[in-house]
Specification:
The structure holds three protein chains of three kinds. By secondary structure, chain B is mostly beta strands. Chain B is built from four helices and 22 strands. Chain B has one domain: Beta Barrel (Porin), CATH 2.40.160. The chains are: A mainly alpha, B mainly beta, C mainly beta.
Chain lengths: 240, 432, 237
């Protein structure tokens, strides 16, 4: 009995010491968690080529370019820490990315510290502050009608199709930044990957989706026009 | 019943309770379905980690729109199997032979038994599990689990209703243990087993309904089961052996730095009613005719600590409980009371290697039968071993398992001697 | 003041007090050698408006040849560093037009710190999807309502690609240099790099598909040196 207790105590002390040394290395701790939770899809090198990746569509993110879809920063920029945390915590709808919110906050922070080591951009660049999202006007019929007009003026249908089904004339030739074919989103079914809330759609429209053909339209529409467009796009969703 | 035959029977029953077939609940079918490694959900398979528990609480769902089996690639098939072929050596001291008391031991390759599991989502609102356990040489496979669960009723994760034969929400699951040679004694123990009308134990799955709930991430969880207790004799009433079981837990991170990463606190209890008088036919009790229900209960708490990184933790669990069963179940003069529990530690320095050890104890506070001394049947068991999973993929796990246990029961041997059983097991535990 | 002195003074004025020598220039032509692949015209079916703008077939821009197999869209630039010298970027932007659903020009050289300005005169949706590595990438939607959009490009970088996702045949290349000594060959396949201080330089010719060619040249005061580059596969012997 005493031997058993001693073994436990020794083990605990060793771990106490070990963790003290790693305390100044969130990325080092994150690497361990990455090896348990992430490596099967995102790969040992963070390039999205884990052994499961060949079976997944959409494919897991390749972290090495620093290109992330879901951000609150302008087009082309790296995400802020809270953007990465949100993606890890909530997962991404209609993808194989699970919601990791059951892990502790420290584990999540360690994980993103490690994920950031895969791209030199995180060491070289600092992300801008989150874009400001102006107050949302009422979501009513006239807003949706105005949004439909904007949809046509901006020619979203070129990729997303006139009915928002992702079947526009350019849809079949779209490729992501890694040269892989990618689909324009079908707004009419299911949930939106980066969130269904109006703010999420606004954000995607105004910051674009890095790594994909989806550009930012922040220079070509006013915030109000953007909101009307958001309302129109959300109105296209059919509920299950 | 004479002292001697009682002790022999005790030994037989005790020995039988050591070697339970390893029951299932590691689920490569889920790994196949979602393309994740087993370590995603299992701290050390089959033990669940926090992510795996949240997945299970959601009704075997990730919750990101990829749960419908028809969305999955053809390599996914929702069936998993588990088996643990291996070698076991058991010895017991103070066995009565014609030449006096001897320590006898025997070793052999175990008859392998296989479990088949299938489970997952039925729809966006319901999930299920069916486990047929113990396909073995004797052809005595039984349905270990068969339930349907209505998940998040009204969209609220605090209301989930499970109907069918299900596992009670124990502090540590008996169906996902890391030990094969030793049960959690506090779940299964009862004094003078052969004398008791009851055969209920916490480790077995129960037939009934369970209302459970959890918050996002399953940090706070509760479960309340109402069941027909297994092994309790039937009474003539709407529910022949009603049993109520409840468990509440909360896990939290008390410190933002340091080695203590997480603490989980829980409280559990169960109360059951079973009859003590029966109509007889030809002297034999008629099933379902019982009256004069008396109660039995368990009350306890659990504490778990995680030290070190959560992905390679040292996890320590302490469970303590108090039990009480009415004297009528024993035909005795006083209620049976005992306390017991276990202290278990699992150290997983690498995701494929786990060292585990456990100390179980039972101490009687009051014996139901007058002639028994207070510590008759007190138990101490020490179990230790390791698991090395040399093949981890999203398709299967294959682990080499080594384990040793030493189990002493006081005063139950001949002439009031203690009986000590030692068992050594090594085998390959695999799931596909 | 004599004319000679005046030109020295004016040259010194141009090159700044650090310049001791007067400027030279390098000119030349870029020639393609070998079999010319057969190209099929670009398929603009994805956008009828683009098709309508281009009644005559538009050939892929990956290899554009003028008379006598002269190569268009070859970037020529000085590789050698200029220690101790900094060259302010011009205030005027480097302009790329989206016209007729192609980028004009196809290859652009610009200076670090200069603005890169995209113009959309097509009346259709284009997006400017820039893929630099040293500089920050960006992807800006340019619907018909947005006629021009500029971005300052800060860091020197080898040629990076700009593409339009709506019209996948549209490609452009932009190289960012820390000095003004570069040129892109035009329709006649010739280039001229002016105002080069006297010295020995390594000059590189870059083509988007055929790679690079390097040559060394020594320029004296007021010299004009000729440097020709050849790309392609020589005919089999």
């Amino acid at each position: 009995m005493p031997k058993f207790k001693m073994a436990v105590a020794c083990g605990a002390m060793a771990l106490l010491a070990a963790d003290g040394m790693a305390e100044n290395g969130a990325a080092a701790r994150g690497k361990k968690a990455y090896g348990r939770y992430c490596v099967s899809c995102h790969g040992v090198d963070g390039d999205g080529r884990g052994y499961e990746a060949q079976h997944l569509d959409p494919t897991p993110r390749n972290f090495t370019k620093g290109a992330f879809k879901w951000r609150t920063t302008p087009s082309g920029q790296i995400p802020r820490d809270e953007d990465l945390l949100r993606t890890i915590r909530n997962g991404l709808y209609a993808t194989a990315m699970p919601p990791w919110g059951a892990l502790s906050d420290q584990d999540l922070k360690d994980l993103i510290a490690y994920v950031k080591t895969f791209s030199p951009r995180f060491a070289k660049e600092a992300p801008d502050p989150a874009i400001t999202i102006p107050p949302q006007p009422p979501n009513n019929a006239s807003s949706i009608a105005a949004g439909k007009e904007t949809y046509q003026t901006v020619q979203c249908g070129q990729c997303h199709g006139d009915g928002g089904r992702g079947d526009g004339p350019s849809a079949s030739t779209l490729k992501d930044e890694w040269g892989q074919p990618i689909k324009a989103h079908d707004f009419t079914v299911g949930n939106l990957k980066c969130g269904n809330a109006p703010e999420d759609v606004y954000r995607v429209f105004m910051t674009g989706l890095n790594g994909t053909p989806m550009p930012s339209f922040t220079d070509s529409v006013t915030p109000d026009e953007a909101w009307h467009l958001v309302h129109y796009v959300l109105s296209l969703r059919q509920k299950h | 019943m004479s002292q001697k035959s009682r002790t022999v029977l005790f030994a037989v029953v005790a020995a039988a309770s050591f070697w339970q077939p390893p029951t299932a609940d590691a689920f490569p079918a889920f790994a196949r379905k979602y393309g994740v490694a087993c370590t995603t959900c299992h701290e050390s398979w089959p033990k669940l980690n926090d992510f795996g528990r949240a997945f299970r609480d959601r009704g075997y769902r990730m919750g990101t729109g990829m749960d419908d089996p028809t969305d999955k690639p053809p390599a996914y098939w929702p069936i998993a199997i588990r088996a643990t072929p291996g070698y076991s050596y058991t010895s017991q001291n103070n066995v009565e032979t014609d030449d006096g008391l001897r320590t006898l031991g025997t070793g052999s390759f175990e008859h392998p038994e296989m479990d088949i599991l299938t489970g997952g989502t039925l729809s966006s609102k319901a999930s299920f599990l069916a486990v047929i356990a113990g396909f073995g040489a004797e052809g005595t496979a039984q349905i270990e689990s068969a339930w349907v669960r209505l998940d998040a009723i009204g969209g609220n994760p605090w209301f989930n209703l499970r109907v069918g034969k299900h596992e009670l929400d124990q502090p540590r699951s008996s169906h996902r243990p890391l030990t094969f040679t030793q049960d959690y004694l506090i779940y299964v123990h009862r004094p003078v087993e052969d004398q008791s009308l009851l055969q209920f134990n916490l480790a077995d799955n129960q037939l009934g309904v369970e209302l459970s709930g959890h918050d996002d991430g399953s940090r706070t969880r509760y479960a309340v089961s109402f069941a027909d207790a297994n092994g309790a004799p039937g009474s003539k009433s709407l529910f022949s052996s009603p049993l109520l079981y409840g468990h509440v837990t909360r896990r939290f991170q008390p410190f933002s730095s340091g080695a203590l990463k997480q603490v989980k606190l829980g409280a559990f209890g169960t109360v059951g009613w079973a009859p003590t008088r029966f109509a007889t036919s030809g002297g034999e009790p008629i099933e379902g005719s019982g009256t004069s229900n008396k109660t039995y209960n368990r009350v306890g708490g659990d504490l778990s600590l995680w030290l070190g990184p959560m992905s390679t933790p040292l996890a320590i669990t302490l469970v303590v409980a108090h039990a009480r069963e009415a004297e009528d179940f024993y035909g005795g003069t006083a209620d049976a009371k005992w306390t017991g529990g276990y202290l278990q530690a699992e150290f997983t320095p690498r995701i494929d290697l786990t060292f585990f050890g456990r100390y179980d104890w039972i101490r009687h506070g009051q014996q139901p039968l007058e002639e028994l001394s207070k510590n008759f049947g007190d138990r101490d068991a020490v179990t230790a071993g390791l698991r090395y999973t040399f093949s981890y993929s999203s398709r299967s796990d294959v682990a080499w398992h080594v384990e040793f246990t030493n189990h002493r029961t006081k005063l139950v041997g001949p002439d009031g001697l203690d009986l000590t059983t030692k068992q050594f097991f090594t085998g390959i535990d695999f799931a596909f | 003041m004599s004319r000679f002195a005046a030109s020295v003074v004016s040259l010194l004025f141009i090159l700044g007090p650090a310049a001791q020598a007067s400027a030279g220039s390098v000119t030349g032509k870029v020639v393609y050698e070998g079999k010319v692949p057969t190209f099929t015209p670009l398929d603009m079916n994805a956008d009828p408006a683009c098709k309508a703008k281009n009644p005559a077939p538009v050939m892929p821009e990956v290899l554009v040849l003028g008379d006598q197999s002269r190569m268009v869209n070859v970037l020529i630039f000085v590789v050698t560093a200029f220690p101790g010298k900094t060259f302010p970027p011009p205030k005027e932007p480097a302009v790329i037009h989206q016209h007729g659903c192609v980028y004009q020009p196809h290859v652009t050289g610009m200076m670090a710190g200069q603005e890169l300005l995209f113009k959309n005169t097509d009346g259709v949706l284009h997006n400017v999807h820039a893929l630099p590595v040293q500089n920050r990438p960006f992807n800006i939607g340019m619907p018909p309502t947005l006629k021009e959009k500029g971005r300052v490009v800060d860091l020197p970088e080898a040629a990076f690609r700009v593409k339009c996702d709506v019209h996948p045949w549209m490609q452009a290349y932009v190289a960012v240099l820390s000095h003004p000594f570069f040129a892109v060959t035009g329709g006649d396949g010739t280039f001229q790099i002016k105002d080069l201080p006297a010295g020995t330089y390594e000059i590189e010719a870059w083509h988007e598909k055929l790679g690079t060619r390097k040559a060394s040249v020594t320029v004296g005061e007021g010299d004009t040196k000729t440097l020709d580059f050849t790309f392609g596969v020589p005919k089999a012997q």
